[in-house]
Amino acid sequence: MTRLGPGGEASAVAGSPRWEGHELAYGVDVGGTKILGVAIDAGGEVRSQRRVPTPRQAAGSAARGQRDGPGGQAARSGGSETSGSHPGEAVADAIAALLGELHRDVSGRARDDASVPALASSPIGIGIAGLVETGGVLRFAPNLAGASGADIGALVMSRLCDEAGRNSICAKNDANCTAFAELVLGAARGMRYGIVVTLGTGVGGALIVDGRVETGARGFAGEVGHMVVDPNGPACPCGKRGCWERYASGAGLARLAREAALAGTLHEAVRLAGGNPELVTGEHVTAAAAGGDTEALHVIDELGWWVGLGLANLVALLDPERIVVGGGLGHAGEMLLEPSRSALAALVEGGAARGTVPVVEAALGEQAGAVGAALAARTGAMDPVV
Amino acid sequence: MTRLGPGGEASAVAGSPRWEGHELAYGVDVGGTKILGVAIDAGGEVRSQRRVPTPRQAAGSAARGQRDGPGGQAARSGGSETSGSHPGEAVADAIAALLGELHRDVSGRARDDASVPALASSPIGIGIAGLVETGGVLRFAPNLAGASGADIGALVMSRLCDEAGRNSICAKNDANCTAFAELVLGAARGMRYGIVVTLGTGVGGALIVDGRVETGARGFAGEVGHMVVDPNGPACPCGKRGCWERYASGAGLARLAREAALAGTLHEAVRLAGGNPELVTGEHVTAAAAGGDTEALHVIDELGWWVGLGLANLVALLDPERIVVGGGLGHAGEMLLEPSRSALAALVEGGAARGTVPVVEAALGEQAGAVGAALAARTGAMDPVV
Amino acid sequence: MTRLGPGGEASAVAGSPRWEGHELAYGVDVGGTKILGVAIDAGGEVRSQRRVPTPRQAAGSAARGQRDGPGGQAARSGGSETSGSHPGEAVADAIAALLGELHRDVSGRARDDASVPALASSPIGIGIAGLVETGGVLRFAPNLAGASGADIGALVMSRLCDEAGRNSICAKNDANCTAFAELVLGAARGMRYGIVVTLGTGVGGALIVDGRVETGARGFAGEVGHMVVDPNGPACPCGKRGCWERYASGAGLARLAREAALAGTLHEAVRLAGGNPELVTGEHVTAAAAGGDTEALHVIDELGWWVGLGLANLVALLDPERIVVGGGLGHAGEMLLEPSRSALAALVEGGAARGTVPVVEAALGEQAGAVGAALAARTGAMDPVV
Amino acid sequence: MTRLGPGGEASAVAGSPRWEGHELAYGVDVGGTKILGVAIDAGGEVRSQRRVPTPRQAAGSAARGQRDGPGGQAARSGGSETSGSHPGEAVADAIAALLGELHRDVSGRARDDASVPALASSPIGIGIAGLVETGGVLRFAPNLAGASGADIGALVMSRLCDEAGRNSICAKNDANCTAFAELVLGAARGMRYGIVVTLGTGVGGALIVDGRVETGARGFAGEVGHMVVDPNGPACPCGKRGCWERYASGAGLARLAREAALAGTLHEAVRLAGGNPELVTGEHVTAAAAGGDTEALHVIDELGWWVGLGLANLVALLDPERIVVGGGLGHAGEMLLEPSRSALAALVEGGAARGTVPVVEAALGEQAGAVGAALAARTGAMDPVV
What we know:
4 copies of one chain form a homotetramer. The first copy, chain A, is an alpha/beta fold.
């Protein structure tokens, strides 16, 4: 039996002889566009995976009100969100339903479904893209507008059962969950000091200090994407300008791609986009670069320079022994990591005197967040030795 | 009988009683994507209009070799251009054919087609997007790769006839032709000191000094789009970074649009783009703004700020009495001009002490370049009083 | 007899046999810190030179009020200016006194002092650092706070005499005067299309179009120093950010010098400054560079890059046949002009295709403005052939 | 008996009745310009303080070679460093001599000097401005050129004695020592998650994680000053551009001061500088601001904005419960901290949702580094509970 690969959607995993259906844990990763859930067994193997879109009324920009004047854009943009139930409720509904499906999946597949414990008594972890307090309350989530202030874990638990003795669900930051999964099962195994960075549409991150995921005073540590690297740079959904995630992300690649296309280069990517430079996306660039196109590779190099710039900042601050890079841009793999390493070496304080800090690809793919949430729920901490 | 409006493609214009078929002049505007030709009568009325795509082997980025290292991108990008005849030849072929059609149009429509003079003995003007020397040689044209060094006018003339006594064709810069048309027939009439700016995919411009279009020592004056306004800004097809045309153009709008969409704003434009922020184009923003969308209008304001910044530079340098703004972004009209005026007032040296420099919309639309080329061919100069 | 060299303060010039004392013209150059006056003879030779400090109450930043909020800094900074007479009056007093001295100088030295015409019937020109309307009214002068709105020429004339039949004095922009002197007597002789740039504490400029100094619709043309080249750059006395004069000037050199010294380089200049990096001035850098110091030369190269950047903008706009560079930074001479030329070549649109635009040093030194004012008063225009 | 205040130079501290001369520890803080040493008693009281200049051949820019081309500036700048003994030797000589003096001070003042233990058997700590490996080897020190690679602690120990059984000295980073002193005795007492930032000529920093000073995988953590916040910003001695320490430091203040003075503002500071805008230093600005000058306060506000920007980055990364700000710019106190707090609140991701992170002044002044080195030598770790 093999773990589901990244992007694998299949919800069925053939049973193995050793599978007894117990020691299951469930993890859910809540992003701005989709919610991904897994059930893992004692060994961390994914026994089921499910995915649903994030409920519409929860998506949107929480930062809008922050940036607009009174009565300005904030007022008019309110229309895109449904009134009625609190957005956190809609997310909790979706998560609870997803967990139910995962439970049915594994129950149906266990040798003896009676051996599968009830959902409410199994460890359940939730990772959310946003600032999640140590106690589980979501405090800030630009991509889950209006859900701020919600204790998603408690809302989900209240949907799962009425029984006494049920356990509790404590939501965590999604990147911290990803890092925990990599620490337990992936590319960060055995690491005492490290940084895990996820380069997707935005940039997430987590700090590994003294062998565990360090979440700081209130649980908010590791927001590497919102380190400002150019105060005059492009606007960020968080309300600032020039955050690292404006550069070292899918959004950054999209920006670089359009600039290059509009500057009359990127011919192959423009061709893939049907000939219109305005329609070149990051995926066109990645595809062209993968085919060896020099102009597209040049844009990937630029992207890598920005990745390396932020990594250099992180190395100066945290002195990690290794950096693990995951997220959707990880599909670019060595094509992106190689210029990132060069930029890191060139830009880090102390350069050669400091020695090389290896930059490696994450091992667990898009399931990492959900798997890490499940693992953290089981151990009750972000520390693999607990 | 009315002049063909901007964008009107009809090649037939109903004859008027006064139309005698003589005193015709022909003008052609050669851009990176299309060639537009007109025949005008003595009063400047457009009697016919024709349009063809710019021959493919002429299009491309001349700047590429300039920017790339030896053996790098320049080498590989060569493949997209056909070998064989010189690109100037292909353009000349297309222009000559277009002129023939225009001549047939007006001949067929004149009261007495014998009264229509032979093409080769009529004034013919050509405007080209690029640096055109006073003598007519094209010296630099990022959007007409490989045509640099060609005397397009001579090449066209050689295709028109073998007769002795033929006149000559002297190509000029397209924006200078546009300005001349506005000076003779449009929004710049009577102006002694002025600036004409065309905001399209790129930014063109022309200077009016002492009542005529001033073309400088060698004919290259007025390249306002390649005034650098941020040396660390986005790359430009010309090979530099941060040229004004990277900001105050369709390309600039496209860049601002993607940045805003990626920053989680521009909801209406993203909706028009089918929901994918990477696919938001300038046209989606203009459409949303025209519908009153505040987020889209905010992007138009930003665009206007950049327009105003460059205009402020031009006012400081040239002290015009008025500024005429044309080009494709002119469709945005007051929506764009109003924030441009505000930015100009705020940014120009001397501000209120200097007094307001009016910024007005161009009158002649997309035919302006071709009409101006015809007018200049007739007068033999860029001076309306000659 | 020789013309007074740049910086020569001597007010006595030995008489020549041809000197008859007639055809004298007087010119005054009013800057933010000093007023320099000359008397020139028919051949343009300087017969006397005088210099006084600019009256204190006239100096200061007119832009202050423009930049500060209501009741903020503007309110408190008012205290540094004396109340009482209008600042324009103080400047006029100083100019009138200076003219009187110049007249006494040349009268005492003429073969027959009776042959020296009365001051009020001689051509008198005044050049002022600021926006001067064609009619002579000063409209904006950041360095002559409060003198805005004054007709300095009329104020001076009213002090010179009460006689009927007196001529009039029409003030002009100082850089235009400088350019006119260079056009008549200096490095711009015979030029039809050119740019004269003065790199001093700030940056001044003038346009030569069709063989004369072009002053635009209202007399304000040529304000090259306030072309914005980085909207996020350092604040400018004019109230904007990132004007070219923040970079390509003595102020720019001072900024680059301090940055380099604070960055731990510029050792020789720091030594000249007594060891404190904060006290390194532009002059220390120039001195060290003149001695061959590589680190100082590197800073001069940076300065030259910024000079070249702005020149590239001007060339794109105006297509000059030649550029004349004067002003106090001219002392740096080839040391500065050489990197400026390299940057111009690298940054100008069209590069090699366009051909080299020569950049040459001004010929007339610090007297140029006063001499040009005198010449313009004599000819009544900024056109050498009038 | 009182602890020596910040800046107190007196080396004599009146004995108290309880003083027995035992449990002494020695600490030395090695900076680019001075070496400061202290002897502390069991309670952390400073019993003696001494200061000497950093040996000249050790000072200079290690980064120079890194930034220059082959044979360029690096070659010529070599002259300012003496040849002969390794620079680390000179530093060690100076430290050993300083320790001897401190020992004599406390011996002479103890009730019974026999009770003062020999130097070589007392805890001795050394803090150095640079990257110091966990084992004590200095790996990178822009301000102690050439000392890179030296084990300063071992070099010092070898000078102190030949006796067997001597203890060892393990150098540490100076800012980590400062933070440890603040953690044990100062403004960071009881803190579990915090950041200590020292704003001096440059910017140092240390991370407090889980109640101890976290030094990372190799001892290099906490280099907050070399987080890049603008890749196009001013050059840094470390070899990069736009490091935070270029802005939020004495160097940053000096840069802002000159820019403002050159922009025609900062009148009071220019007056203090003798009237020359180029000679305005950070101290002039601080003095003018302390006197209530609005223009100077505006520059301090700008400085505070940059301080806040970097703190916002650190908060996003590390989620501290409190931030302690020390260093020479701490003299500016609330005048600087107040705008820093405002900027932090405005710029930190999550803003109000995250809650306020208090920013407080450090308690221990310029002795903090030396005291912290002594404390760390005594405890053998950067953990107050060890």
